[in-house]
Amino acid sequence: MCRHLGWLGADVSVSTLVLDPPFGLRVQSYAPRRQKHGLMNADGWGVGFFDRSVAGGVPRRWRSAAPLWGDASFDSVAPALRSGCVVAAVRSATVGMPIEVSATAPFTDGQWLLSHNGVVDRGVLPLTATAESVCDSAMLAATIFALGLDALGATIAQIGALDPHSRLNVLAANGSRMLATAWGDTLSILRRDDGVVLASEPYDDDSDWEDIPDHHLVEVTAQGVTMTPLDEPKGSR
Ligand code: GLN
């Protein structure tokens, strides 16, 4: 399982989300606290953020197939990268998956940034033609983009029914909406005065972190946070 983090709110520096917190993604790259599968996340990292200096906002990505803890260039520049919408991840590659930048989250369709914690049988995924990599997460991202993010909950429930061994924690954002699923792994939310964090695990010991129950979809917009249970489609087994 990899670890991911999303932010929707006021403009903040990427560093304050990813590198500075005592148990943030930098520390999670070598010492995650809640990871159930895999000991560390040394197979790459990615940070995506929406750049609102361009009309409408565009997603920009910085990804690497090397461990986050050793990246001095990112460490230097991250304090100067500011955004109101961020999707970041550190990766522990599933056995058999390529370790390369194109297999590293976040993935994008030009509108959304998307990360996946987990594993899925690629044979059950439809609509993978545009996937960036043969990595299961890249193929899952391509399927979700093709079906549309409005259908995220239904898509996850359907894929979960087709592959009962899958773990499908997905995090996606488009600059004004942030969506996440809890399906087989941990997910937590922190409602701050200046915005909302969704993360695989809390980046500090603030008592305001709440755990999202398994098999749930969370949606964050400027209007607030909604949480919906996800059920497997009836008659799917
Ligand atoms: N299966 C994905 C990969 O190989 C994600 C792995 C994970 O969540 N650890 O990259």
Could you walk me through the main structural features you see in this protein, from its secondary elements to its overall organization?
This protein is an alpha+beta fold. It has a seven-stranded antiparallel sheet with strand order 3-2-4-1-10-9-11. Strands 5-6-7-8-12-13 form a six-stranded antiparallel sheet, with helices on one face. It contains five helices and 13 strands. It has helices spanning 14-18, 25-28, 72-77, 136-147, 152-162; strands at 3-13, 45-51, 58-64, 82-90, 107-108, 113-119, 167-173, 178-182, 188-192, 195-199, 210-211, 216-221, 224-229. The chain has a single domain, classed as Glutamine Phosphoribosylpyrophosphate, subunit 1, domain 1 (4-Layer Sandwich). The model has no long low-confidence stretch (mean pLDDT 95). A hairpin with a 2-residue loop joins strand 12 and strand 13. Helices cover 16% and strands 33% of the residues. The longest helix has 12 residues, at 136-147. The structure holds glutamine. Residues 1-2, 38, 91-94, 97, 103, 116-119, 135-137 line the site of glutamine.
